[in-house]
Amino acid sequence: MSKLLEGKLALVLGIANKWSLAYAIAQAFSREGATLALTYLGERQKESIEDLAKELNVAAILPCDVTRDDDLAALTESLGALGRPLDAVMHSLAFANREDLNRPFVETPRAGFALATDVSAYSLVAVARATTPLMTAGGSLCTLTYLGSTRVVTNYNVMGVAKAALEASMRYLASELGERKIRVNAISAGPVKTASARAIKGFSGILEVAERTPLRRNTDPAEVADAAVFLASHLGRGVTGNILFVDAGMQIMGF
Question: What is the pLDDT along the chain (255 residues), one digit of tens a residue?
Fold first, then answer.
């Protein structure tokens, strides 16, 4: 039985540790036959990514700070040196200062707002510019978002605004890149216990609410990963500019 991503080269950005959604996605991509390129931020993170990569089909582990244009240019060059087209890009990057998630949104400083939108939203545009020239046979560019982009989630604050910008960016990219057979989508995952999620004050309360979803449970990272496989594979060939909710139905509830 053939694997869904057999023969494909996929770039995964944003693995922080073994609890990251990006790592679950990398595992699923590898399981389905993809060859991976992974990125890391700083030498401290490099060792942990190298350790996680031992269980995956990885061709390259590359440094990349998406706030630095020279890093993105180097990423393009390193990926090109692999000598094969890039088929899929998984963008799993978001950041906001912890204090900006804990203070009232109206008190968000200009610098904190700019940082959150730069890393969490503009980086999708920057990554697309760096990678899509290598997607010569078309492919899939996917990012991760959350319901806080369209609904007020207590303490999500500036990250909710950044995710709204991310989703709008995804749609504009989908429109522009479609003629090159590159599909751009987002997966809106339900709350999962990741390192970034724990930075949100009262996150345990969000998990309790999630247990009142139609499926009466929280989201499993493997479900998000399988959705990413679908979008990266031939099965998702007609899907672009969409937000795929993988949240046990949470988005339909009024709570």
Answer: 789 999 999 999 999 999 999 999 999 999 999 999 999 998 889 999 999 999 999 999 999 999 999 999 999 999 999 999 999 999 999 999 999 999 999 999 999 999 999 999 999 999 999 999 999 999 999 999 999 999 998 899 999 999 999 999 999 999 999 999 999 999 999 988 665 555 555 556 666 777 789 999 989 999 999 999 999 999 999 999 999 999 999 999 887
As annotated, the active-site residues are 146, 156
Q: How far is CA 122 from the centre of its chain?
A: 13
User: What residue type is 67 in one-letter code?
Assistant: T
What is the identity of the amino acid at 24? A
**Would you list the DSSP string of 79-121?**
HHTT-S---EEEE------HHHHHS-GGG--HHHHHHHHIIII
Handedness of CA 229, 232, 235, 236 (dihedral sign): positive
Which residues partner with 35 through β-bridges? Answer: 9
DSSP state of 191: P
| The model scores a pTM over 0.90 | yes
Q: Is the Cα torsion angle 229, 233, 237, 240 positive or negative in sign?
A: positive
The rounded distance, in Å, linking the Cα atoms of 217 and 149 is: 21
